[in-house]
Structures are given as structure tokens and as C-alpha cells.
Design a protein that fits this description.
This protein has 978 residues and is α+β, with helices and mostly antiparallel strands. It has 11 helices and 52 strands. The chain has 6 domains: 86 residues, no CATH class; 239 residues, no CATH class; 74 residues; 102 residues, Immunoglobulin-like (Sandwich); 75 residues, GMP Synthetase, Chain A, domain 3; 149 residues, no CATH class. The N terminus is likely disordered.
């Protein structure tokens, strides 16, 4: 800049006349120097007052030649003098010029620019456009109408609009589907297989019978027999037991039956039925005819003689009687007993002690000796008749059973203690409940579901199962923290814990299984592992108020076998669910924030170069995509109904390329620019032949809560309702200045290729929707792993199933070294609490000062100002509080990490010895004599205390993401001290 009086030297006053030096203090030519990294440049050489004083001081020494000083006689300095007024005007002009010169200088550099337009233009000079943001995305679950007469299926087209039900201080938001899906009524809710057919194996002591009206009571007899016995009468694959316990379960619609001796035996060899086993209740107990005959010895001689004559006239009178354990006490006990068949066509029979009309043909009968000397045998009734039998001095009508079987000789000798179990009634077996948790990548449905295809998106919902520590548990059971193995929580009988991960199934296959390792969460939120025996815990269903978990799954293969469908998932489920609470939603479509707009931009004119149009609606929707920027525009333009292509820049296009470039201005409005016949084709002349279709709506407003999207603005035929089981995530607003300053150079650093560790971090950080990123190198086995911890732009985690996560991973895969092993994970949140006392200047309102301290802490230790793995120190806390106006001094009483609850057991970690926050801070007087100066700090917590936050790391072979340590808004306890 040229001034009217350009000083030729740094001083203008005679040193002899300026003994104190005060007259030349502002007459020195300023030396401007700006060190690197400053937020603003100092480029202004002076202000109006300084300019005026310099010109006034220069007046006496102004020379036209060696002899003439024409203004030396101008002695007045009055502001109303014309000459002085002219100098004042020039000083004002110089002030204005230097002011704007400094502003222009600052706006010319990316770090110091304050205007969004400046940053926008500077970024464009290196080919970078300010990120317009990205729309939130979620999954919509549609319910197809199931009423009688409904078609049972529907087609959900792309662009179906669903509006949210706004909450307090919210505005309704519109989402649209971005894909077309087929929906069916049978896909509304799919359930996992809850039960399986019971398997009859050797050694079992219990069964589940269908229904609760079995009529069984303890002591009743049951028979387990299969098809093996039907084909082979001599088969030993059957068993008979007396019931010991009968417990009905009305809510589960089955009855639990148990007995004492396990099924099967090693000697004599016997195995349970395997071919279509069935369970029968033997409702009737009977005895053989003659079981109550009088003993032979005390009978009169005449009776004995008559009996001998009856059975054999030549029997000697001194024939000994048979008595004792091994035979009957009558001379011939074969009378009325089954005789061994002389040919296969002849079947044995038995006469019972009475008439039993409920015994039917083809029913099962078991003969068993009460003393167990013979054992038991199974027969099938081939014929039933009622006969009059006279024997053993007895006469009666009885039921005769012709039987199909073997081994009658033993029962012939034990008439008195043989018991006949008859009147068999089949009791259907119930399905056995499957107790295994739903986890992994294998999902078995409870029925056959037709039509599901590979790649289908599923939403799996459910709750975690609980375990209860039994009363028989050992007293020293402890839960070991995942974060710090030295921290343990004592487990007490009756404690109920959530199952985060079940034990390894291989542990139960060992001959003598040791304690099994469970991954559990205590009701206090303490998470860890515990080694527990099976008999020390009881598994329980989840509570109704337990958290309902939802995650996205994708079908990799669908197998339809028999009456069941099995789905193999592309990735294992992240959670382990209680089987009874699981529901799988299959009518799922991806949707993003934004509403479609059709707009006629205007008329094309082939005579104009670089013709441009501005869209009427601002905030054009950009959806997540696997591009270097992380977003894809929804804008499409047709000229004469022909689709033109959007490009990032017109530079390098051929003259015939039907393309256009979109530019987002400072007001979030989009302008489209067409070619000039040298770089891109000009528009074709026509009347209103340029038509745009785009969606409007972007930013954090679209992150609606789960269950908010329920209003169908366009209802597909056959669809009854819709909802979003997952909240909308992944949104980011238009790029602000601070982000643009950091992100614009990243594109030049990476040049859309990812090689170094810093490249991975820069690429992820510049991705639309990502707010923070940190890349770290780890070892995974023998391979080098690049692990990237990310956070969404809104501060929320980046869920694995979200569109933002998949877009980021796919984009990195497309631009990084294919040989490198890369993983992306969302950060782990850790919070801390504090208690402090604040001495407030009495001139200030105490409530305002406390509010200012709280706001300063929330800002200083909030998401925007923290890095992954950055620790928090007491010195940082004190510095932030002390900088608030009105704070004279602070006393930090307590500073503790509260992300993990304190266990009941004593911790051996020194960092855990600090007592947790208890609420109100003590209000006793402070010894302010220890404070060296007013505004200094002195308290019970030393300024050197550090709360650590860990970077990404490996734990037990698994990679844990980096921690982000933030202050807990509910954990700030401030007490005013006067």
C-alpha cells in the first residue's frame, strides 16, 4: 500500500528533543512476522490513530529540496484545520485499507479463513468440494396383511415414503426405501426352532409327555417300545419302568415324567427302542388265575386225593409237594398257565384273576415278578376271551389272553408273585425344548419357509438369557473383569446375571468337564468371566424389562430340508439370545433420509457456455456409498428425457460428453453447471427440457429413534404397517469450517489411495459420516493388522450392520493395498465423574458461575475436543474450571472413572482404591492459606492424577477398539464455597 507520507527512516524526531523516547514509540515502522500454525495472521501495519500521529510528526521534516521545508511553519494541530482534516481523512482511509488487507490475507489461507465461501473456494483450488453431508439410514420392517382374503404378499418398490412420528422438540422426517423387495405374510415374523424330537437313549431317567392331562401318578407303569419289537418278538429293545415323579407344566403344555432306574442295562443286555419309539401307560394291574389258591400242605387228604386223580390217576400218594422259592406249592403248577407252543402257529395264553374288559387285542402286556427273581417280559395281545376256569380248588370267570412273545417258563413257576401290567394307552411324547442360545451363523427355523433367497437382509431381535447362582454354589465364585484381571466381583447365591457369551460347547464333551467359563454381566453393569460348574447355576428366561437387542444379518445360504428351513448367515451374530425371545424379521428394506422432488430447472440454450441452474430446494440428499468421499448424490438430470452424467469436475471432458458438475454453495443450495463445447457438451436448445429429480433432507435431524418411522405416506398394496426396529444412524451435516480445514488437505495427502498407516486414518476421517478415526498397527497371528477405530460425526458408535459401516469398509477395500489386513471397529466409550468445590467471586452470581463451570467441563471434555486414547488429568480439569470468569479458586475432591462399577471384593489394583462418587461434596471450610495466590488451586486430588484411556489393543487374541474418555454429564458434582 502507498501512503501519502512514506517515512524514510524509523524515527522522525530529533533525539536531543526527545529525551524520554515517548515521541517516537509509535513512529517505528512495524515489523510483521507470523510463525507457522497461528489461527490468524497479523498483516495490518497500523490503525487510524497511529497513521495520523505519524503523518503529523512527519510534517516539519517534509522537504521539497535541500533548502525548503514548506510545512515547517504549519504550527497548528487543530482538527478543524483544513490541512489537519485532510491528514485525518487519509489516516481513516489507510485504516480501512489495512483492515481489509488483513482480512483478505487471512481469507487467502485455509487455516486462517473465517468465511465458508473462502474455505469453499480454497478447497476447490485443489479439487476438493466441501462435503455436503450424508443422510441417515436405517432398515424398515414391513408387515404384510394376514387377514382372510388378503393376497399374502406385496411388492415394496424403491421410493416408498415413510414419515416419522416426532417426539418432543422434533420435526417429522421422511425416509424412502432405496431398494425393491418382495414381502410375504409368512416372512413377517420368523421364529427359531424351539423344540426338537426327544431322543430315547440309554441311561435317561426322564421324558416329556405331550399335554398336562396324562392321568399318570407316581407308582404308575409306563412302557417304552418301538418298531423293533413289532418285527422281532425276541428283540430286547424296549423297557418298562414305574413312574417316580410326575410334574405338569401348563404354560409349556407338557408333563415331565421321571423314574429312578435309568433305561437300558449292560447285564442282562438291553437297549432302549430306537425305531419310532412310543410311550405307553399301562393303566391296569392284574394277577394270574390261582395267585390266591390255598397252600397245598394244609389241605385235607380227600382234597389232595381228588386233585391227584384229576390231574393224573397214576400219581403216587407220596408224591412230594413243591414249595419254596423255586416252585409252586401244588404238585403241578402248569394247569392254567401258558404252555410252550408246540408249533409256530400255536400261541401261549394266560388266565387272569378276573374279567378285564378294557384289555384289547394288539395291546401291550408286561409280566413281571414282584420279587424280581424272573424279571419282566413284554408281550403283545393277539386274542382276548372270557372263560370259566376251575383249578386250585377255585372257580371263576376270567380274561384269557393269547400272547405273542417268549420266556413263559419262569412265570409258570411263580404264579403267586407275578404281576400283569395291561391296558396300554399311548401317551404322545412332547417336543424337547432346545435350551441352546441363538448365536453364531447358523439359524434353524421352526418351520419350512419357502422363497427366501441368498443375500436376504434379516433383522434378528431378542433378549439375553439370565443365569441364577444356585444355593449350592461355592462361596468363592467371582466375576473377573474384562478390563482389568485384578478386579473381581464376588458372586452370591441368588445373583441374577445376563449371559453375554455361553461357554464353549466342547467343554461339555469332556469325560469329566471342569468348571465352564461364562461371560456374564452383573445387574450393576460389571462385565467379566467366571468359572462355574453346571450344578452351580440355573438358567432363567429374560426379564420383560431387559434390553431388546436388534442386529442386522444377511443370509448367505438357505436350505429347505423336510419340514424345516435352515439359514446360514454371512457373519456370526454379535449377540447371544434367549431362544424363546428371538424373532426374525424378513420383510426388510434399506431406507435413507430424504424426500424425492421432481423439478423443471428451465430451458436449454445451445448458444450459451457453461449454462447453470440452481435447485429450488436446499440440502440435496447424499446417501452412504463406497466412494472416496463416502457419499453419493441422489441428483439426476435429464435433458430431453435423456439422462446426463454427473462428474466431479468438467476439466478433462471431451466436447461431446453429456455431463454436468454440481456445486454446493454457502447456503447449502446446489447449482448444476454444464459444459462449453470444449470441456463437456453444451445444453440442447429446448423449452423446459432440463428436468431434475433429487431428494432433499440431510444431516443429524434424520437420526430418528427406533420405532419412530410408522406412517406410510405411500402404502404398497398388501402392506399393513411398517416400523424401524433400529434407530437411523450415520448422518452428517454439511461440512463446517473447522472440519473443512482439516479434511481438505486429506484428499491431497491420500490421492484416493491408501498405503501408509496415516493414509488409513486420513481416508477414514475424510469419509462422510465419520467424525473421528484412529489407525494403529497390530499383530494378528503372523499377519500385520491395521485396525481403524471410528466414531460417527454425531458422536455415536458406528454399528457393524449400518450402511455407513459397510460403505466405509467397502471403500477402504477398493482403495487400499489388497495384501494388507484391515479391520474397522467402533470406539468404546468410557466416562469419568468428578467432585469439586468452587470459590466464587462475590461480585458474580454463584449459579451463573457454577453453570459456566459445568458448561466449560462439558465442552472441554466433550466429543468434539477429545481424541481416542487421550487421558484426562486433574490438571486439565483444574485449568478448565479456573478459566471460567468468576472462579477465584477450586478444590478438586475426587476424580474417578465410572465406566466400570466398583466390585464388592477388594481390588488389588492401586487405581481402584479411590472411593466412588457418593453425591454431594463436603461443605466444610477450606484452608485457603495453602492457596499461594488468588485463583490458584489446591485440593485433595493432586493435579498429577491421570485417568487413562487405552488405544486399540489385543486382549486374549481379540482386538479391542480404542477408548474415548468423556466426562459424564450426570457425574459432575459442584459445590459453591463462600
Amino acid at each position: 500500500m502507498s501512503l501519502p507520507f512514506a517515512p524514510a527512516q524509523t524515527g522522525f524526531t530529533d533525539p536531543a528533543l526527545d529525551t524520554c523516547g515517548c515521541c517516537t514509540s509509535d513512529l517505528v515502522r512495524p515489523h510483521l512476522e507470523n510463525r507457522p500454525g497461528l489461527p490468524a495472521l497479523e498483516y495490518r501495519i497500523s490503525t487510524q490513530a497511529t497513521f495520523l500521529r505519524r503523518m503529523l510528526a512527519r510534517l516539519p521534516s517534509l522537504q521539497l529540496d535541500a533548502m525548503r521545508r514548506p510545512l515547517a511553519l504549519l504550527a497548528t494541530r487543530a482538527v478543524d484545520d483544513g490541512a489537519i482534516a485532510l491528514l485525518d481523512a487519509w489516516a481513516t482511509a489507510a485504516d480501512v485499507l489495512t483492515f481489509y488487507q488483513e482480512r483478505i490475507a487471512n481469507e487467502g489461507f485455509l487455516r486462517t479463513a473465517t468465511e465458508r465461501r473462502s474455505v469453499l473456494e480454497l478447497a476447490r483450488s485443489i479439487g476438493y468440494e466441501l462435503n455436503p453431508g450424508v443422510a441417515a439410514s436405517t432398515y424398515l420392517a414391513f408387515t404384510v396383511e394376514t387377514a382372510k382374503g388378503a393376497p399374502g404378499r406385496a411388492t415394496v418398490a424403491e421410493g416408498v415414503k415413510v414419515q416419522s412420528v416426532p417426539g418432543q422438540d422434533e420435526r417429522p422426517q421422511v425416509f424412502e426405501t432405496v431398494e425393491e423387495i418382495e414381502a410375504r405374510a409368512e416372512w413377517n415374523v420368523l421364529r427359531p426352532q424351539l423344540t426338537a424330537p426327544q431322543t430315547i437313549t440309554q441311561g435317561i431317567k426322564e421324558l416329556l409327555l405331550d399335554g398336562v392331562n396324562t392321568g399318570l401318578q407316581p407308582g404308575d407303569a409306563i412302557l417304552v417300545v418301538g418298531d423293533e419289537r413289532l418285527g422281532k418278538p425276541n428283540s430286547e429293545q424296549w423297557d418298562f419302568r414305574l413312574v417316580q415323579g410326575v410334574t405338569p407344566y401348563p404354560d409349556r403344555h407338557y408333563t415331565h415324567v421321571s423314574w429312578e432306574k435309568p433305561l437300558g442295562s449292560y447285564w442282562p443286555p438291553a437297549q432302549p427302542a430306537q425305531q419310532h419309539p412310543k410311550v405307553f401307560a399301562l393303566r391296569q394291574r392284574a394277577a394270574l388265575f390261582g395267585y390266591n389258591a390255598p397252600e397245598w400242605g394244609p389241605l385235607p387228604v380227600t382234597v389232595k386225593a381228588a386233585y391227584r386223580t384229576l390231574i393224573s390217576p397214576n400219581t403216587p400218594e407220596n408224591t412230594p409237594s413243591y414249595s419254596g422259592l423255586w416252585g409252586p406249592d401244588w404238585p403241578d403248577a402248569s394247569f392254567g398257565l401258558p404252555q410252550p407252543p408246540s408249533s409256530p402257529s400255536q400261541l401261549p395264553f394266560v388266565d387272569l384273576d378276573a374279567v378285564y374288559p378294557k384289555i384289547l387285542q394288539k395291546s401291550w402286556v408286561v409280566l413281571s415278578t414282584a420279587t424280581g427273581s424272573v424279571g419282566k417280559e413284554l408281550y403283545q395281545v393277539t386274542r382276548v376271551s372270557t372263560n370259566a376256569v376251575s383249578a386250585f380248588t377255585l372257580s371263576a370267570k376270567c380274561t384269557r389272553l393269547e400272547l405273542k412273545g417268549q420266556k413263559f417258563a419262569g412265570f409258570r413257576l411263580h404264579r403267586r408273585d407275578t404281576v400283569v401290567f395291561a391296558v396300554s394307552e399311548e401317551l404322545p411324547m412332547a417336543e424337547q425344548p432346545i435350551t441352546a442360545l441363538v448365536s453364531g451363523n447358523h439359524l434353524e427355523l421352526d418351520r419350512r419357509v419357502m422363497g427366501l433367497q441368498k443375500g436376504r437382509v434379516l433383522l434378528v431381535t431378542g433378549r439375553r438369557r439370565r443365569v441364577r447362582i444356585s444355593d449350592a454354589a461355592r462361596q468363592w465364585l467371582r466375576l473377573t473383569s474384562d478390563e482389568d484381571p485384578t478386579v473381581r466381583l464376588d458372586l452370591q447365591p441368588g445373583d441374577s446375571l445376563l449371559i453375554l457369551e455361553p461357554p464353549d460347547p466342547d467343554e461339555a464333551q469332556q469325560p469329566h468337564p471342569p468348571d465352564r467359563v461364562w461371560h456374564l454381566m452383573h445387574r450393576s453393569g460389571f462385565i467379566g468371566t467366571a468359572s462355574i460348574r453346571d450344578e452351580e447355576i440355573e438358567q432363567e428366561p429374560p426379564n420383560p424389562d431387559d434390553e431388546l437387542l436388534v442386529e442386522v444379518a444377511r443370509a448367505a445360504r438357505v436350505n429347505e430340508t423336510g419340514d424345516q428351513t435352515v439359514i446360514d448367515l454371512a457373519e456370526p451374530l454379535r449377540n447371544s439370545y434367549d431362544r424363546g425371545s428371538v424373532a426374525v424379521l424378513a420383510n426388510v428394506a434399506r431406507a435413507t433420509h430424504g424426500e424425492t422432488v421432481h423439478e423443471v430447472l428451465g430451458s436449454g440454450d445451445a448458444s450459451q457456455e457453461n449454462q447453470r441452474f440452481t435447485l429450488k430446494r436446499p440440502f440435496v440428499t447424499y446417501v452412504p456409498a463406497a466412494t472416496p468421499t463416502g457419499g453419493r448424490s441422489t441428483l439426476s438430470i435429464r435433458v430431453n428425457r435423456v439422462l446426463w452424467k454427473e462428474v466431479r469436475s468438467l476439466y478433462g471432458l471431451d466436447p461431446e460428453s453429456q455431463s454436468y458438475a454440481a456445486r454446493i454453495d454457502n447456503d447449502a443450495k446446489a447449482t448444476v453447471v454444464f459444459g462449453d463445447a470444449q470441456r463437456g457438451a453444451r445444453l440442447l436448445t429446448g423449452v423446459e427440457n432440463v428436468v431434475a429429480t433429487y431428494r432433499t433432507g440431510i444431516g443429524p435431524d434424520g437420526e430418528v429413534r427406533a420405532g419412530a418411522l410408522t406412517l406410510l405416506q405411500t402404502r404398497p398394496f398388501g402392506v399393513r404397517e411398517v416400523t424401524n426396529p433400529l434407530p437411523a444412524t450415520g448422518a452428517a451435516g454439511p461440512e463446517v469450517l473447522e472440519d473443512a480445514r482439516a479434511n481438505a488437505p486429506l484428499t491431497v495427502l491420500t490421492l484416493e489411495r491408501v498405503v501408509s498407516l496415516q493414509d488409513y486414518e486420513d481416508f477414514a476421517r475424510a469419509f462422510a459420516g465419520i467424525g473421528k478415526a484412529q489407525a494403529i498397527a497390530l499383530w494378528k497371528g503372523e499377519h500385520r493388522l491395521v485396525y481403524i477405530t471410528v466414531a460417527a460425526a454425531t458422536g455415536k458408535p458406528v454399528e457393524r450392520g449400518s450402511a455407513l459401516y459397510h460403505s466405509l469398509v467397502e471403500s477402504i477395500d477398493a482403495f487400499h493395498d489388497p495384501a494388507a489386513l484391515v479391520e474397522v471397529g467402533s470406539y468404546a466409550l468410557a466416562t469419568f465423574s468428578l467432585e469439586a468445590r468452587v470459590l466464587v467471586d462475590p461480585r458474580y452470581v454463584a449459579e451463573d458461575v457454577v453453570t459456566g463451570v459445568r458448561d466449560a467441563l462439558l465442552a472441554g471434555f466433550g466429543f468434539a475436543n477429545r481424541r481416542f486414547g487421550q487421558p484426562a488429568t486433574a490438571a486439565d480439569v483444574l485449568a478448565i474450571m479456573q478459566a471460567v470468569p468468576g472462579v477465584l479458586a477450586t478444590d478438586l475432591n475426587q476424580l474417578t472413572v465410572d465406566a466400570k462399577p466398583e466390585p464388592r471384593a477388594v481390588s488389588s489394583s492401586p487405581s481402584r482404591q479411590t472411593a466412588p462418587a457418593t453425591g454431594a461434596a463436603p461443605t466444610g471450610p477450606l484452608d485457603w492459606s495453602r492457596v499461594p495466590t488468588l485463583g490458584g488451586t489446591q485440593g485433595s486430588t493432586p493435579p498429577t492424577q491421570v485417568l487413562p484411556a487405552r488405544p486399540a489393543r489385543q486382549t486374549n487374541g481379540d482386538v479391542e477398539p480404542a477408548e474415548l474418555l468423556l466426562i459424564n454429564p450426570q457425574g459432575i458434582t459442584l459445590t459453591v464455597v463462600t
